[in-house]
Design brief:
The chain is α/β, with parallel strands linked by helices. It has one domain: Acetylglutamate kinase-like (Carbamate kinase). Helix content is 37%, strand content 19%. The two termini are 14 Å apart.
Length: 237
């Protein structure tokens, strides 16, 4: 899996920002993430980031409780903006420049996203944090990150999760589950593995964007992945 990546799209889950808390944002976890991101920026890697919003609000579970699905998804989009601002603030504190882009116009909270502005920011050594999902309801932030990864011409999408890769079954429920070092998109589909939703997986497959699923909560793992260490699971065509 030894490979050098010049530009990456890092997908972080909103839930992971909770850290030890039951809800919201754990400042220690956000600082840990910011430190790891600053480390890889120092390696000369151009970084785009998409963060989920599940630590604050999830449209689908809101819809199950009677919230209109479109409004619920819009609330979820706003949650991703809150998380993006928190990460951007943590990076600023460490002296790492970052710029928040929003999929819907929300000036002055963030800059209205365009591919060219995001690439320009990354080329200038800034972290491009792209929030608001795709800007549309009925799409997950996984699909948002796949879309942005393809748009900004990233070499790879890194999906930081609580689990250290893709397994034959959920390792938290099935201790005998076996981990894959690498797997194809088709195999994920045929085995019915829940890595990302189908729209996101298809987008990556059709545009030949490889994904590495790895455990982001172990400090140092992000740098290990980008240094070519064989951790996590590589998904490819």
């Amino acid at each position: 899996m030894k490979q050098t990546y010049k530009r990456i799209l890092l997908k972080l889950s909103g839930e992971s920002l909770m850290g030890e808390k039951q809800y919201g944002i754990d400042e220690n976890r956000v600082r840990e993430y910011a430190e790891q991101i600053k480390d890889i920026a120092a390696m000369g890697i151009e970084i785009g980031i998409v963060i989920g919003g599940g630590n604050i609000f999830r449209g689908l579970s809101g819809a199950a409780k009677g919230v209109d699905r479109v409004k619920g998804d819009q609330m979820g989009m706003l949650a991703t903006v809150i998380n993006s601002l928190a990460l951007s603030s943590a990076l600023d504190t460490l002296g790492q420049k970052a710029r928040v882009f929003t999929a819907i116009n929300m000036f002055p909270i963030g800059e209205y996203y365009s591919k060219w502005k995001a690439i320009e920011a990354m080329k200038n050594g800034e972290i491009a944090i792209i929030s608001g999902g795709t800007g549309n309801p009925f799409f997950t932030t996984d699909t948002g990150s796949a879309l942005r990864g393809v748009e900004i011409e990233a070499d790879v999408m890194l999906k930081g999760t609580r689990v250290d890769g893709i397994y034959t079954a959920d390792p938290e429920k099935h201790p005998d589950a076996v981990k894959f070092d690498e797997i194809t998109y088709d195999e994920i589909y045929n085995r019915g593995l829940k890595v990302m939703d189908l729209t996101a997986t298809t987008l990556c497959k059709e545009n030949n964007l490889p994904i590495i699923v790895f455990d982001m909560d172990t400090v140092g793992n992000l740098k290990k992945v980008l240094s070519g260490e064989n951790i996590g699971t590589l998904v490819h065509n």
